[in-house]
Amino acid sequence: MAVGYVIVAHHRPAQLLRLARAIRSGSAGPIVIHLDRRARRVFAAVEGDLLALGDVAILAQVAVRWAHFSQVEAELAALEIMLERFPQVSHVQHLTGQCYPIRPLADFERTVMAGAGKSFVDCVDLPQAGFESLWRHIERVHFVGPRRRVLALPWSRRLPPRRFAAGSPYWCLARDHARHLLELPAATRGFYRGVLSPDEVFFQTELRNSDHRDAVVQADWTWTDWDGDAPSPQLLTSAHAQVLAERPEFFARKFDESVDAAILDLLDARLASRGQGR
After folding, report:
1. Is residue 201 within 8 Å of residue 195, measured between CB atoms?
2. pLDDT digits 0-9 by tens, 12-49
3. At the topology level of CATH, where does 2-117+169-183+216-273 sit?
4. Phi, psi (5° rounding) for residue 222?
5. pTM of whole model > 0.85?
């Protein structure tokens, strides 16, 4: 059995290639990459190098928009390819093109394989105190326009009979659980088209309300540096070097090698010193 990696990328082709190489240096697991349909030509120069890594599939089915259901659609499209083409995969880890491993993937995969049949998902039940903003993402209909413009209807909507949950969108799904999500009726998926940032709600809620609920383990294996209510996490730079060395997670985001490539060089060196070379 193997762990597969789904990557959703929108820009920075050279950085995507670097991430894929970092994964391949530590894992033989398949990699499925969903490119934003609107940016497919931007990645043309690196697609050959990506495919040369072996067991890599590339698709560009969805034009992805920030905080929009298209994010979930892209992830599900990549999941479907992963399950169809790579029957040896028992678990799938979701990343973005601006993620990077911060601990050896061999350690990560041993941890995953020890939880046979389990998914590892960050999940908090809603509504509850301290998560009011997440609940508003669900209870009101949201329309997401260009340039991250959001319109929220001023009244609550009728909710389906669900125990809602939310959390980090960087899950690790067991194969059977991924298949369950892919087979959900179109009407079930349709509800989430009105949710703001549905990638933080869809996976948690639908697994929470499935027969697989008892096989979902609370885990958040991708670290982000959030600053209050900012719409995006802080960029991770060389100033985070010590913090990253001390974090227990296996991955981190968000990196931008055009701003600071040295932090990725440092992570590569650390991984190589711990047995994962590029």
Report:
1. yes
2. 999 999 999 999 999 999 999 999 999 999 999 999 99
3. Spore Coat Polysaccharide Biosynthesis Protein SpsA; Chain A (3.90.550)
4. -125, 115
5. yes
